[in-house]
Amino acid sequence: MSDLSLFLGQLIRRPTEIRAIAPTASAAAREMARIVRPDMQAVAEIGAGTGTITRAILDRGLAAERLELYELNAAFCDRLRSLFPGTTVHNRPAQDMVNVGRGGLDAVISGVPTLPMSDEMQHAIVGSALWMLKPGAPFVQITYGTQPPLSARVRADLGLTHTRSRRIWMNLPPAQVYVFRQAPG
Ligand SMILES: C[S@@+](CC[C@H](N)C(=O)[O-])C[C@H]1O[C@@H](n2cnc3c(N)ncnc32)[C@H](O)[C@@H]1O
């Protein structure tokens, strides 16, 4: 089965978890991965789906053994394990990272659809990632909306600043990439 057929089949079964009409296109996946460097020691991707962003991360020259993937959907996890040997694939929600992952992360790259989530869920996911990230390291989030993908309250509670990319029209729907960092202190 192709990645697209797998994605669409799971979208029909679990629309509230997936919340996108197609896998991320390569231009947006490259923008998500732009921050990754080959000398990074540990990177996590959350909501990896069928692996389009994963591929872009590895194309940046990061060794597969330095990449951990978190994905709720078991069928997607099976696909990720076969496509990306050497990576560690956790069939766990991203907010469990704090219990099962490795610390000292240089970056977290997120395809999890945070925009429609409650503040409590956004806080759990991003708070868990921040706990595992090195101080000031980036949390990269894709979004299809025109507003930041984390609420003003969550950004203020967690002390986050952000930058954002231009809108990427070659994606369905058009996307933007935000890079969040926790301000010192
Ligand atoms: C919009 S899809 C993106 C998939 C892939 N990253 C891509 O770009 O094509 C969102 C993915 O996040 C996963 N997901 C949703 N909530 C999650 C959570 N709390 N923890 C981990 N994965 C989650 C879904 O199962 C789905 O695979």
From TrEMBL:
Gene3D superfamilies, alphabetized: Vaccinia Virus protein VP39 (3.40.50.150)
Protein name: Methyltransferase type 12
Organism: Paracoccus sphaerophysae
